User: Which sequence fits this backbone?
């Protein structure tokens, strides 16, 4: 895992822990990311702590968290120090924080251990089923969030590599290569709408802009060497056109963008009008000529 991805994992874990605490009223939620050596480092906390837990590194199979990393299954103890089911390498930390009951759930993305989420109480009352289920469901939501982010990063990197640079630019991809670029472009725009990370969305938009304008289409003029005013399409109009350019039907576009068929038609009509086109095909061609689509 590279540093930027690891740092982003920590940020997303912190947000998730905050939501989990709000949903369960647990006195403490915490967790951290798993490194390439399968060690879990506890770095994210929501709730009061003395500091004993902060920065602790748990080895695979050791303690509750290490057991979760090894088994890749949720684990529960209602009396940590007295539990016979775990090693007690970290009892001193748990005692320092006066923790009693803990549930720990793995965060696994595409078979890769990415982190562990904990919910903890300091009382002798056992953790209820509702709380345990909330921790499990929250971990699953985080897995989906990380999977989407990973896919965005992968496609963003691929598109960046395909985008010609201003100086010494490589030739435009031809044939199937060009279609792959266009398909990745459309799918990236679809995935981008699901991210709540402004910085990542900005990067995606910047790469899409470069890809669509980096010599992949000739600019139109009025035949006298005077450029026509460029139409301004909304982000959603571009999303629809990018999908239509791949030959998708309106129902297919609606499903992928999470909107109704009638809304797709509305965006398509608006884009077609702005581009002075008479059909969806002409609209795609006009958008490419103006550098609005790759």
Assistant:
């Amino acid at each position: 895992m590279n540093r930027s991805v690891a740092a982003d994992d920590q940020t997303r874990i912190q947000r998730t822990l905050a939501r989990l605490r709000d949903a369960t009223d647990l006195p403490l939620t915490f967790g951290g990311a798993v490194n390439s050596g399968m060690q879990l480092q506890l770095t994210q906390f929501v709730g009061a702590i003395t500091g004993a837990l902060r920065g602790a590194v748990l080895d695979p199979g050791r303690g509750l968290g290490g057991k979760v990393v090894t088994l890749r299954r949720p684990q529960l103890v209602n009396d940590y120090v007295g539990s016979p089911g775990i090693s007690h390498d970290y009892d001193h930390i748990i005692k320092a924080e006066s923790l009693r009951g803990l549930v720990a759930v793995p965060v696994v993305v595409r078979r890769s251990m990415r982190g562990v989420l904990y919910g903890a109480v300091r009382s002798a009352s056992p953790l209820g089923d509702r709380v345990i289920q909330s921790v499990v469901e929250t971990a699953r939501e985080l897995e989906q969030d990380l999977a989407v982010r990973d896919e965005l990063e992968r496609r963003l990197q691929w598109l960046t590599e395909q985008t010609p640079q201003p100086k010494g630019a490589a030739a435009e991809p031809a044939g199937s290569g060009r279609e792959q670029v266009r398909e990745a472009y459309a799918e990236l725009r679809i995935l981008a709408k699901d991210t709540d990370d402004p910085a990542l969305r900005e990067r995606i938009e910047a790469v899409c802009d470069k890809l669509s304008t980096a010599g992949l289409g000739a600019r139109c003029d009025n035949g006298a060497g005077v450029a026509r005013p460029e139409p301004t399409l909304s982000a959603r109009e571009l999303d629809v056109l990018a999908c239509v350019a791949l030959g998708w039907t309106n129902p297919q576009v609606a499903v992928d963008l999470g909107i109704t068929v009638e809304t797709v038609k509305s965006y398509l009509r608006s884009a077609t009008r702005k581009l002075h086109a008479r059909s969806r095909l002409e609209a795609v061609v006009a958008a490419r000529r103006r550098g609005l689509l790759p």
About this structure: Strands lie at 28-33, 40-41, 44-46, 57-58, 75-77, 101-109, 112-121.
